[in-house]
Amino acid sequence: GAVVSQHPSWVICKSGTSVKIECRSLDFQATTMFWYRQFPKQSLMLMATSNEGSKATYEQGVEKDKFLINHASLTLSTLTVTSAHPEDSSFYICSAYRQLSSYEQYFGPGTRLTVT
Amino acid sequence: QQQVKQSPQSLIVQKGGIPIINCAYENTAFDYFPWYQQFPGKGPALLIAIRPDVSEKKEGRFTISFNKSAKQFSLHIMDSQPGDSATYFCAASKGNFNKFYFGSGTKLNVKP
Hints:
Chain A is mainly beta.
């Protein structure tokens, strides 16, 4: 089946540092990937749409200079949280569309970011 | 404005019961309605999805009922098991490769 992986699964960093999270589609090519943020006991909040070979499209209210997204290949998108602060601590999840008989979106396992 | 409204927020059923989770949407352009299951600390997993050309879809113990005129769809879990205890999200999208609009989630607890 379709598999989307994320690395790392959890990360702790100090305030002011940058953290990169990778999202890979393991058995299919993904021209479009999405990055979500999820707070405890809440729904998924879409941060941005990542398209291979072009700039990401950010949702309203998401700081593009703080959350850098790069979709360098058909199987890899990265999210870099720059100058992280404690309020950036969250669960970050990526997803990718896979085209079979229909277009289905598969999610990665998530990355838990804790900024101290 | 919330595009997809989900209810209830939480649900407790006994093993073998049939929990029903409901979602309502506003945008008639939506043409894809998936349900996802999420366990704590994990990413959401696709359970079942439906398009508006059918009124019902069944996969295993999971059934989606779709009412296009009412702009509502629901998830039914037959013969629920404690292992089904998770948070369930409905979503909607329009066209292909487009973003999802998620419901607020329903936390299901199936008691043994």
